[in-house]
User: Which sequence fits this backbone?
């Protein structure tokens, strides 16, 4: 550890005291009488009231002290506010349920304080990104701008995605239980793996996971009763009418490997769909090569992938420049050359576009096919070819796999030393017959793929429901692999996320996978793309036992083995659509 002299410590302490004043334990009244707790950081000796930035967090305000100090030293009042029921705030915490009203009340209270000039902004990512959209939909008059990073969207990407819950939700609910921070409990990966594996190996209903973990104090059971978008979840998301009324500047930030990219992009796309032209023109989007945490503090290496120096965007400085522009009449941030900024991996550079749709210069279609139905592992794979399958018995032989929910072998994969690796792809070598793999031919030149891929597949099965996951990889000339993007779907939600429709066994059904995450990468000459489709069978996800019942309540006694056939004849030409960069 580097030694620091006593004089240096005293000098730093003096500088800190001169720079920032602290207001501890500020109690802010909500409309129902509950008081939320704020810790307020102010520049010392300010001659006039200033704009106020605040974050509303379930993760205990103290965890963001460094951000608050940064902005206070750069001319802003910054308030760290615990959501109701967490930290030093009163009330009870129910995730996503109260932030819209509380956010409105916070904005208006902060705007009236003597150290405030009446302009209020928000900061934060993940849950605090959700908070910003929840507050904005209520249109508090003094809200000047929001900067949501990695914003979770209730019933879009959390606590379920396309109807599929993950085991992680009870880990997160335990993290945010009670008043305290609980970071050690949250970070005990051994404990969580043991509990998730217990539910998995005993084939217990997913609904019992909170009991297995030992925390029945949360909204877990309520969430189990709302497994798809409905009125409960709709109250937490802006309506089309609310999107249309937005009239403040917005900066949305997400990453290629951000776990909440789907939520962040859902807000962005809905605003582009329903917002006025003037409002859309003031909504900027940044998509970096980052994971979830990197949307606030970028790092150069994610999951074994290392990115260029240009990826290390100073997001604190960019936020400051954004606030200066939108609340102090400062210059527009130089980085925001157009409304969309996206990072291209390979050349390691930022590119710009007027819209998401303007990023790609066209699409390239690759059709699924195989020889004699051989597509079950990396060594005997199907193909992704530019030609449509021929109208012949050979071209039409379907590819088949079996998903047995009681087969626990795939779950053993969760014991890998680095389950978050984006480059260690050993699964295709031992799918246990549970999945299909397709490869393109090697690329004959470097090719940029930027945007969201789309997969259309024609599938038949002998059960009324199951789950699918699809992942796309770049297979490098040296045999290494890089995870690019993925999607997942519960079959009953293939037509609508709101209206489940069980599958008629034996019927060949069209599935459109439109939920792939955005990525931008230059595929190297000589590389191939690998598409892997399978039914998830893991300790990390709610297991579908294929019976067609309420999945959260199903157990091993309900299990039905699914025999799945993917068709690729002339009548059922499935394909992968690739957005090709300009």
Assistant:
């Amino acid at each position: 550890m580097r030694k620091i002299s006593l004089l240096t410590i005293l000098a730093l302490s003096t500088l800190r005291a001169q720079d920032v004043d602290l207001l501890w334990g500020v109690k802010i009244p909500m409309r129902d009488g509950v008081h939320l707790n704020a810790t307020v950081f102010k520049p010392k000796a300010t001659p006039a009231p200033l704009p106020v930035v605040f974050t509303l967090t379930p993760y205990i305000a103290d965890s963001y002290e460094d951000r608050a100090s940064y902005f206070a030293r750069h001319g802003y009042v910054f308030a760290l506010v615990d959501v109701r029921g967490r930290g030093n705030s009163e009330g009870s915490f129910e995730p996503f349920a109260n932030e819209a009203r509380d956010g409105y009340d916070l904005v208006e209270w902060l705007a009236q304080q003597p150290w405030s000039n009446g302009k209020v902004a928000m900061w934060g990512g993940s849950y605090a990104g959700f908070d910003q959209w929840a507050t904005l939909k209520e249109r508090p008059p003094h809200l000047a701008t929001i900067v949501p990073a990695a914003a979770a969207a209730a019933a879009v990407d959390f606590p379920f995605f396309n109807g599929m819950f993950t085991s992680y939700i009870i880990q997160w609910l335990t993290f945010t239980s009670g008043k305290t921070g609980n970071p050690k409990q949250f970070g005990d990966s051994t404990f969580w793996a043991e509990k998730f594996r217990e539910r998995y190996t005993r084939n217990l209903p997913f609904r019992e996971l909170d009991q297995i973990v030992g925390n029945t104090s949360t909204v877990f059971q309520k969430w189990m009763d709302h497994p798809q978008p409905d009125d409960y979840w709709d109250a937490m998301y802006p309506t089309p009418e609310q999107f249309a009324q937005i009239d403040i500047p917005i900066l949305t930030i997400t990453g290629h490997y951000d776990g909440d990219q789907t939520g962040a992009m859902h807000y962005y796309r809905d605003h582009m769909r329903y917002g006025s032209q003037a409002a859309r023109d003031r909504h900027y989007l940044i998509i970096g090569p980052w994971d979830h945490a990197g949307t606030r503090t970028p790092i150069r290496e994610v999951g074994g992938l290392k990115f260029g120096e240009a990826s290390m965007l100073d997001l604190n400085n960019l936020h400051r420049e954004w606030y200066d522009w939108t609340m102090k009449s400062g210059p527009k941030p130089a980085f925001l050359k157009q409304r969309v900024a996206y990072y291209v991996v390979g050349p390691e550079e930022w590119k710009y576009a007027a819209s998401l749709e303007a990023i790609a210069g066209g699409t390239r279609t690759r059709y699924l096919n195989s020889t004699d139905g051989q597509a079950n592992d990396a060594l005997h794979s199907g193909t992704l070819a530019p030609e449509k399958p021929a109208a012949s018995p050979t071209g039409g032989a379907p590819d088949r796999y079996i998903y047995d929910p009681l087969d626990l072998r795939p779950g053993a994969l969760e014991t890998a030393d680095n389950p978050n690796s984006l480059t260690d792809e050993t699964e295709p070598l031992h799918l246990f017959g549970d999945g299909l793999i397709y490869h393109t031919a090697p690329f004959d030149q470097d090719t940029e793929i930027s945007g969201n891929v789309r997969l259309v597949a024609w599938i038949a099965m002998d059960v009324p429901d199951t789950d699918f996951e699809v992942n796309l990889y770049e297979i490098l000339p040296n045999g290494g692999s890089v995870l690019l993007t993925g999607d997942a779907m519960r079959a009953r939600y293939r037509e609508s996320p709101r209206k489940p429709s069980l599958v008629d066994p034996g019927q060949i059904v069209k599935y459109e996978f439109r939920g792939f995450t955005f990525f931008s990468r230059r595929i190297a000459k000589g590389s191939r793309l690998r598409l892997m489709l399978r039914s998830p069978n893991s300790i990390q996800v709610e297991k579908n036992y294929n019976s067609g019942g309420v999945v959260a309540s199903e157990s091993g006694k309900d299990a039905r083995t699914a025999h799945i056939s993917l068709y690729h004849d002339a009548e059922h030409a499935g394909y992968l659509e690739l957005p090709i960069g300009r």
